[in-house]
Design goal:
The protein is an alpha+beta fold and 389 residues long. It has 3 domains: 42-134, Immunoglobulin-like, CATH 2.60.40.3710; 147-235 and 371-384, Chitinase A, domain 3; 237-362, no CATH class. It has helices at residues 11-38, 70-76, 167-171, 180-190, 207-213, 257-260, and strands at 42-46, 51-54, 60-64, 77-79, 84-90, 93-100, 107-112, 128-134, 147-156, 161-164, 196-199, 221-226, 240-244, 246-250, 252-256, 272-274, 281-287, 291-296, 303-304, 311-316, 320-325, 335-337, 346-353, 358-362, 374-384. The termini are far apart.
């Protein structure tokens, strides 16, 4: 028998045609499947690939052909160096707002995984990346409403550093000799080695800096001279107190009733409490609607610390108490605190006069600085706007 060859097609030719049809169907199915899964595409991005002198606060954006799934966005996009910020997704666009400025003169590579997905289940299908390089500064300037962070070196009139945000200055005492205030309070107790923000227009305690740093740019440095009344205010002589090292004081003291309620559980004659300043026992001696008279009841030999140094109770009479403040030259320029004061009130030992047997304390803040001209070398480290720009 023979196959019907009336159509003029041989057996081998027939097999070839059938094979082509099958392969075509398979290929069509593959393409259709590919289109249904990988139809998502990146239409645009920024900054441009290879772009340089990019602003350190420049947003990074991607535009897709499909609405983006935010969870796949955050898991699929990575940066070659850490960038602090957050993504904002709006259908097919995704913008990364930089919260803390990127490093200057640095190349950043943005990589997008092919697993990036759309709301419709489509995928990007292939990896994608682009790069850009930041400039050495930012176009941002200090204007009204911006939060400006400063690196600073603050010096007294005689060139002694009393505050700084720079580690290099903190450790270099040869080039930058320190004031007594810095050595005892700023460096050791307050540990204020930090940049502080100045919000222009807020008119807070740093308002005097506003006029000086207005219109400065990131990375710009300026030397600022302040008179004796700025930036800490006028020196107040009433805050300077001279105390005899051998001190005699009355055993009776009048307190305002509002203060006494924090010392005594019950306001009545004979009630016992502890003196907030001296730390010794006290007894209510008398009281009125507005005042409470208390009697100090320490014991001879008691050691108390009302000023942050040891004070010994020497004698107790019917009406008076004699104390000895154990202060010597080692306390000169020390920063100490009054006992029981909240918030903590600090002062500096301004003088120890052994001849006159007196100690002088200065509660002006910062002690040894307020009331004299100061010089500030400031560098704008960062400028943040209240809203992304």
């Amino acid at each position: 028998m023979r196959l019907d060859n009336s159509l003029g097609i041989g057996r081998n030719a027939m097999i070839f045609v059938v094979t082509c049809i099958l392969l075509g169907a398979i290929l069509l199915g593959f393409v259709m499947t590919r289109d249904s899964v990988e139809i998502m595409a990146i239409l645009n991005f920024g900054p441009g690939d290879g772009e340089d002198m990019v602003d350190v606060y420049s947003p990074i954006f991607l535009f897709f052909s499909e609405t983006v799934r935010e969870d796949t966005l955050t898991s699929s996009v990575s940066f070659s160096s850490p960038i602090v910020g957050e993504w904002n997704v709006n259908e097919g666009s995704a913008t990364f707002r930089v919260a803390e400025r990127m490093r200057s003169n640095t190349m950043y590579v943005v990589s997008v995984s092919g697993n990036m997905g759309s709301a419709n289940g489509k995928k990007l299908g292939q990896n994608f990346s682009f790069s850009f390089t930041t400039g050495n500064t930012s176009s941002r300037i200090a204007t009204n409403g911006t939060s400006v962070q400063l690196d600073f070196i603050a010096m007294t009139e005689d060139g002694l550093v009393f505050a700084t945000s720079l580690q290099s200055v903190k450790t270099d005492n040869a080039t930058y000799p320190k004031s007594p205030f810095y050595i005892d309070a700023y460096k050791q107790k307050l540990n204020l080695l930090r940049r502080f923000p100045v919000i222009i227009g807020k008119e807070d305690e740093f308002f005097v800096f506003e006029r000086e740093i207005m219109n400065m740019k990131i990375g710009e440095t300026k030397t600022i001279f302040f008179g004796p009344d700025e930036p800490f205010g006028t020196y107040n002589q009433s805050l300077v107190q001279t105390i005899p090292l051998n001190e005699t004081m009355s055993r009776l003291e009048t307190m305002e009733r509002a203060d006494a309620v924090h010392v005594f559980d019950v306001i009545e004659n004979g009630s016992k409490g502890v003196h907030p300043m001296f730390g010794w026992n006290v007894t209510i001696h008398n009281f009125t609607e507005s005042d409470v008279v208390v009697r100090a009841d320490p014991s001879p030999g008691d050691v108390i610390r009302p000023f942050g140094w040891d004070t010994t109770v020497l004698l107790i009479g019917p009406d008076n108490i004699t104390l000895r403040h154990m202060v010597n030259q080692s306390y000169l320029y020390r920063i100490l605190a009054f006992r029981g004061v909240f918030p903590q009130k600090l002062f500096m030992v301004a003088e120890v006069n052994n001849t006159a047997d007196m100690v002088t304390i200065d509660s002006n803040w910062p002690p040894g600085v307020v009331g004299q001209p100061t010089t500030w070398i400031v560098t704008i480290y960062d400028i943040k706007h209240p809203e992304p720009v």
